[in-house]
Amino acid sequence: METTTQQLLCKNVKALPPSFIKGMLKATQDPEIISFSGGLPSPLSFPMEALGKSMAHAVERYGTKLFQYSLTAGIPELREFIAARCNEKYGLGVTAADILITTGSQQALDLIAKVTLDPGDGVIVEEPGYLGALQTFLQYAPTFHPVALSEDGLDVEGLASALAAPRVKFIYTVPNFQNPTGLTYSAQNRKAVYNVIRDKNVILIEDDPYGELRFDGKTLPYIAAGRFDNCILLGSFSKTATPGMRVGYLVCKNAELLETIAAAKESSDVHTSVLSQYVLYDYLTHNDYDGHIAEIRALYESQCKTMLDAMSECFPASVSYTRPDGGMFIWCTLPEGKTALDFFYEAVECKVAVAPGDPFYTAPKAVRTFRLNYTNASKEEIREGIRRLGTLL
Amino acid sequence: METTTQQLLCKNVKALPPSFIKGMLKATQDPEIISFSGGLPSPLSFPMEALGKSMAHAVERYGTKLFQYSLTAGIPELREFIAARCNEKYGLGVTAADILITTGSQQALDLIAKVTLDPGDGVIVEEPGYLGALQTFLQYAPTFHPVALSEDGLDVEGLASALAAPRVKFIYTVPNFQNPTGLTYSAQNRKAVYNVIRDKNVILIEDDPYGELRFDGKTLPYIAAGRFDNCILLGSFSKTATPGMRVGYLVCKNAELLETIAAAKESSDVHTSVLSQYVLYDYLTHNDYDGHIAEIRALYESQCKTMLDAMSECFPASVSYTRPDGGMFIWCTLPEGKTALDFFYEAVECKVAVAPGDPFYTAPKAVRTFRLNYTNASKEEIREGIRRLGTLL
User: Is CATH 1.10.10.10 the classification given to domain B48-286?
Assistant: First the structure.
């Protein structure tokens, strides 16, 4: 029986499954819990003093521009900065006109789905894939075509057959240190993916919040950003400076598509906080941003190593896991016969929280995988938490 | 013939009419133009020095909370502040749990439409109505039921018949100093509107960005906020402190509805800029906010009076117009035989910009109405601009 409120909701919203996360969150509210379940950057990764200086100087430097309505596309200074950085680091050959500032990358996911998806339209996603993206796309009632992700990257044959499905609008990828697996597409896999999509009329989303957090191996070129007009590269300052300001961006050379997304953004929030944009721009241009990123990388590398070392010591060989070259996550697979959800509840009993793999898949099944985040716990907490998990395995 | 990009867009987006505004904006880019066409607050309304102080002290006062991910609902401190103010000023009887911080009120409009509207669902709007809301709702392909707005408020009989239409999900109102007309619903009209909706299962949006900018007459109670669970009151700091920070809020006592909107917000941008929220909260609690609003009111009253005096002097009696008790706009009606669009282009020739009334109606027709904004021009500009417009009439 519908409540009177449900009668007022649209079909897509009524069809949404109950939030998997909310139920789990309740189980992990206890402040004594050591949490590896979230995806928060370390507070040590925020350049607080430098951002504070930028805030203190902002009024004198930017005046009323800080406070007035502004352009939907974002402040020109920051878009120029981003374009220059994309060109310098990745040779994308873009200009400020190809950049749209978004209220975090999350907004970009929502806007792209909003302007492209009719109910039933196809969306190709990595399996397992980023939960926050899956939930956002679900609002538009798409047909998901999951493609397996493995150590090498995306299953190229699987991608080719998924692309043969009708009405596929976009492919969503996180090629570097993927969430939830920590896996990175190899250089060869990127080329193979590009060759499959290059002559298709489809959008490729390359979501890259973690790309700069590489602590092992060499930076790899993007799959298609800068070369394929329908590629939308998503970038963010959330993992390299601050997530609280909600400043992300998208890069897209297809001007018609970009303009359509910008029009949807105008209806969505007019523009991203100008205060956030100017403070961040001021920080980026008055400090050694690359030096700061190098510090975060070193921090996360040592946190990751601490966790992997503890896992190697405390976990039995029957538990397998990824060894990320960067980013924030390790993905574990339990032996046959044990579900991640059972393990989650056992772990909570021991005051440790993990993220069970279930919501990272497009269809419910009792999976044996779970995600560990190593960026928001101290080394002592990491060692103690992994030790406790080990006693359950 | 569709472009390949259009093939990737959803039906609702492809059906959107071309932006009326974009074409007009091009005509008004000339920096020599005196513009009454926008809706910008005066830069004098920004408490720059005080906001600058809050920015300078923010790191020491709020620490890492300024920079980390935060709650989708908004920071608790600001929600408490808003609830207390709603209770003190309007006796709404709400708590922080009834408040959702939004990235400007614009986001609230988008989220409400997003969670409620299936294509063809009914939306009741004032005619003429706020363009930014109409454009946002249009993205969800509703059936508009316009109800006439006049000096007294909303046409109550028109509202009752509109409510008899099938699948009406919400009514959108701006009861104080409406955009675009500057009109305010009378106390009697508010009661009559409330009596029509009180036993209906429909959402009433009371959008109130200008309510505190009253320079004449007494504050009136809301139509239904605080009494009708499906009422969603929208508030904003854009017109009383700064629009650039993008901080608005919605107040709703229907917890199920509020939670659904909050879930959509989570997918939309996770949360509103925490920096914006804390800086604003700090400003509000360390300064005389009501005293600042009184200054804005006095400023806008004198700008409005200057414009009305100039109109009385320069416009012929055949041009009628509203006399707002607050807010930012005057609404003019040309004599028979002259369209607002023709007048707009004639005015641009004289280097003055007005907002022709056309896009404020749900169906295109050659209207004789146009909007004048008096808050973002000096008194000299107001007098000179109105003088030039007078020569065309």
Answer: no
Q: Are residues A20 and A369 in contact, defined by beta-carbon separation less than 8 angstroms?
A: no
Distance in angstroms between the alpha carbons of the first and the last residue of chain B: 43
Instruction: Tell me the pairing of strands B168-173 and B122-127.
Output: parallel
Nearest to B274 among A67, A244, A267 (CB): A244
Query: How many contacts does A have with B, using Cβ atoms within 8 A?
Result: 238
Q: What is the rounded CA–CA span in Å between residue A220 and residue A202?
A: 23
- A123 min Cα distance to partner chain B (Å): 12
Q: Are strands B203-207 and B168-173 parallel, antiparallel or unpaired?
A: parallel
CATH 3.40.50.2000 for domain A4-46+291-391, yes or no, is no
Among A10, A49, A274, select the one facing B115 at the smallest CB separation.
A10
Neighboring chain A residues of B269 at a CB cutoff of 8 Å: 103-104, 106-107, 110, 246, 269
- For residues A376 and A143, the answer to whether their CB atoms sit within 8 Å is no
ipTM: 0.96
- Phi, psi at B233, each rounded to 5°: -90, 130
> With an 8 Å Cβ cutoff, are B3 and A275 in contact?
no
Residue of B7, B256, B273 with shortest CB distance to A273: B273
**Segment (H or E) for B191:** helix B187-197
* Interface mutation vs chain B, best among A275, A280, A375, A376, most B CBs within 10 Å: A275
Every domain of chain B and the residues it spans: 4-46+291-391, 48-286
Euclidean distance between CA atoms A53 and A51, whole angstroms: 5
A4-46+291-391 and A59-286 agree in CATH topology: no
The residue type found at B24 is M
β-strand pairing of B122-127 with B369-373 = unpaired
- Give pLDDT tens digits along chain B (393 positions): 889 999 999 999 999 987 776 666 666 678 899 999 999 999 999 999 999 999 999 999 999 999 999 999 999 999 999 999 999 999 999 999 999 999 999 999 999 999 999 999 999 999 999 999 999 999 999 999 999 999 999 999 999 999 999 999 999 999 999 999 999 999 999 999 999 999 999 999 999 999 999 999 999 999 999 999 999 999 999 999 999 999 999 999 999 999 999 999 999 999 999 999 999 999 999 999 999 999 999 999 999 999 999 999 999 999 999 999 999 999 999 999 999 999 999 999 999 999 999 999 998 788 999 999 999 999 999 999 999 999 999
- The verdict on a CB contact (< 8 Å) between A106 and B254 is no
Shortest distance between the Cα of B167 and any Cα of chain A, in A, equals 8
| Contact between A223 and A173 (Cβ < 8 Å) | yes
Q: Give dist(CA A96, CA A258) in Å, integer.
A: 12
Q: Which two tokens stand for residue B372?
A: 């004048």
A56–B46 C-beta distance less than 8 A: no
Which position has the token pair 């899956």? A134
Interacting residues of A306 by C-beta distance below 8 A, sequence separation 6+: A374, A379, A382, A383
Q: Is B355 helix (H, G, I), strand (E, B) or coil?
A: strand
Q: Give the whole-angstrom CA distance, residue B299 versus residue A366.
A: 64
Residue B183: how many CA atoms within 13 Å on its side-chain side? 24
Distance, in Å, from the CA atom of B244 to the CA atom of A96, rounded to the nearest integer, reads 21
Q: Are the beta carbons of B1 and B14 closer than 8 angstroms? A: no
Half-sphere exposure of B116 (CA within 13 A, CB side): 32
Question: Mutate which of A61, A67, A163 to test chain B, going by most B C-beta atoms within 10 A?
Answer: A67
Query: What distances in angstroms separate CA A50 from CA A56, A274, B4, one per listed residue?
Result: 10, 18, 45
Instruction: Report the CATH number of the A59-286 domain.
Output: 3.40.640.10
- pTM score: 0.97
Mark yes or no for CB contact A10/B117 under 8 Å.
Answer: yes
